[in-house]
Amino acid sequence: MGAVHLAFLGCGFITRVHSRHLRRLRSDIVCSYASRDRDKAEQFRRRHRGRRSYGSYSEAIADTSVDAVVVAVPPRLHLELTLQALGAGKHVLVEKPAFPSLSDYEAVLAARGAARKVVLVGENDHYKPLAVCLRKLLARGAIGDMVFGHFTTLAKKFKPSEDWRNDETMAGGDAFFEEGIHWLHLAASLGPRITRIEGFRPAPAVGGGDRRAKSMMVAFEYDNGAVGALYYSREVPSLFKGMRLSKLLGRKAIITFESNGLFVVVRGAGFPRILLPGFRDIRGYQAMYRDFHLSIHEGRSPAMSLERAMEDQRLMDRIYASLKGSSPTAVLR
């Protein structure tokens, strides 16, 4: 299989993160960089040994040598650039949260069908070794009948006042929508399907440069009869500024895991088992890009397809509807 020529649309923090992880995939993926500031794009090209730099997103999309683009700009710009890229015959990897509404997803579905191209929503957490390990354990019945799921992601990490995430029109929503969606996906992608869900938001803090609502508790019910809760905050201190423990509790055993993926402990009737899911690609970026590369060459749907991301969006919609007091316990269909 030949290498895919990939152009990043946007040269910010997340493009740096992706580019670092792509160093191991240089035989499969060749990167170029586009920014509204040509000098910045050229700096990224030199730093990450890219092929080309562009002074606008449209210039990169119009380049016939570019096979695919990564939409790595604030969410408000995702839909326009995704549709533009599909219209130009490019495959697309769009950062998550991909779009703020289901109608946006539906517009992209139609454009994807017309273009016959691959669209992958950049949910790297779906691919990380922790998620793969947990899915395998549950599929094998490691804890027996599941009773509870307890997911915790706490850290005191404020954004500066000038950060675009403070503008909900740019970010698509508050901190939970913009970042907590990754943890919601983890809770919803382990095998059992979430059928009912409700959100509870603590009173937001007053003052400070980070003006977003930064905490959310979500309660839900799975189709296997288990119930769960997700505790998300970016204003509560945690051990080592980010280490936290989550659990899956069953009638046969309990799985305790470090939420970032450092370790998994399975304890039941015998001695506890300690599993190390994997550190080399702990955040799943390389596995995600391998899936993108293979999906392009094989003409198949990726694991993190638009359809899969729409399931997460429906959950998000129900969470925020419940905050407004509209029938939060309605069954999802």
Give the structure's gist in a few sentences.
This protein has 333 residues and is of the alpha/beta class.
Overview features:
disordered C terminus, 333 residues, Dihydrodipicolinate Reductase, domain 2, 10 helices, Rossmann fold, alpha/beta, 2 domains, six-stranded parallel sheet, globular, eight-stranded mixed sheet
Describe the structure in your own words:
It is a single chain. With 333 residues, the chain is an alpha/beta fold. The protein folds into two domains: 114 residues, NAD(P)-binding Rossmann-like Domain (Rossmann fold); 165 residues, Dihydrodipicolinate Reductase, domain 2. Helices cover 33% and strands 23% of the residues. The chain is built from ten helices and 14 strands. The strands form two sheets. The chain has an eight-stranded mixed sheet. It has a six-stranded parallel sheet with strand order 3-2-1-4-5-6, with helices on both faces. It is globular, with a radius of gyration of 20 Å.
Give the SSE layout.
Elements: E1 4-9, H1 13-21, E2 29-34, H2 38-47, E3 53-54, H3 57-62, E4 68-71, H4 78-87, E5 91-95, H5 102-115, E6 119-122, H6 129-139, E7 146-154, H7 168-171, H8 175-188, E8 194-200, E9 215-222, E10 227-233, E11 245-250, E12 254-258, E13 264-267, E14 273-275, H9 285-298, H10 306-323
Parallel strand pairs: 1-2, 1-4, 2-3, 4-5, 5-6, 7-10
Antiparallel strand pairs: 7-11, 8-9, 9-10, 11-12, 12-13, 13-14
Helix pairs in contact: 4-5, 5-10
